[in-house]
Specification:
It contains 15 helices and no strands. By secondary structure, the chain is mostly helical.
């Protein structure tokens, strides 16, 4: 329901992004690692996944309660909030879009459509509305059908998780979008880096479905390699809605946000 307040849920995707940031280009095919730990000298940080998740949160906060200007606010928030962080890992086409004076969607099916979508599920009053919001959040850049599909599959899972649906019902919903007939163990050795929705969102959903708690879901996502920060961001966004996020983990992640991003996060939590 709109207005559901739990400060330790929306942070789930941001946790996954930050924990996964050190493994994106140096995968670890194991669940045995230190949460928020350094990896080969690299320290965790909030990547473009966290920045854009919060930019979308900002657009929903500014658009509520009627959302007639959601599309316009998404463009404005994503550009204004994203520009001060030019080195946080944006893809080339998105980077150009973010600095454009006339930003236009560029038919992407990249996983950026799915990693930033969490707010759509929190703002929605129904599953149908969550899917519609997800479509709009994707279309400002990722207007390819597969980009929209990835955003909607993720937002739908988050919405159902947030509203108490069990694994079986979430799986039934997600099966309408992707073939999820695989296990993490079965793909771990062969899975490789891929930035498409088609090769990230299904794996992220299964990482959630095979989990036993929030932290386990993040470890699942990172353990298969690939685009680790985005995989864990998507998984964490669903798992955070389902399990909630332990306070110590949530507080640790919030500590990586600068005052500007923290203010955006706090405003969204207060509104929704």
């Amino acid at each position: 329901m709109a207005g559901l307040k739990n400060t330790n849920r929306i942070i789930g995707g941001i946790v996954g992004d930050i924990v996964g940031s050190v493994y994106e280009f140096d995968n670890i095919k194991s669940k045995d690692f230190v949460l928020f730990g350094d990896h080969h000298g690299q320290k965790c940080f909030a990547t473009d996944d966290s920045i854009m998740t919060l930019a979308v949160c900002d657009a929903f906060t500014k658009s509520a309660p009627y959302y007639e200007f959601l599309y316009e606010n998404l463009m404005k928030s994503m550009q204004e909030i994203g520009r001060p962080y030019p080195d946080c890992g944006y893809g080339g086409r998105f980077y150009s879009w973010m600095y454009s004076d006339n930003p236009q969607p560029y038919n992407s099916f990249g996983n950026g459509a799915a990693m930033r979508v969490s707010a759509a599920a929190y703002a929605a009053n129904t599953l149908s509305e969550a899917l519609d919001f997800a479509r709009i959040t994707a279309e400002v850049t990722h207007n390819h059908p597969e980009g929209i599909k990835g955003a909607q599959a993720t937002a739908g899972c988050i919405y159902l998780a947030l509203h108490g649906y069990d694994f079986r019902k979430i799986l039934r919903f997600a099966d309408h979008y992707y073939d999820l007939d695989f296990t993490l163990h079965g793909i771990r050795d062969s899975y490789r880096f891929n930035e498409s929705c088609q090769e990230t969102v299904p794996q992220a959903i299964v990482a959630f479905l095979e989990s036993t708690d929030f932290e386990d879901s993040i470890r699942n996502a990172i353990s298969i390699g690939g685009d680790s920060d985005t995989l864990a961001c998507i998984t964490g966004s669903i798992a955070g809605a389902y399990y909630g996020v332990p306070v110590n983990i949530a507080d640790k992640a919030i500590g990586y946000l600068d005052p500007r991003l923290r203010e955006i996060y706090d405003r969204f939590v207060e509104e929704f």
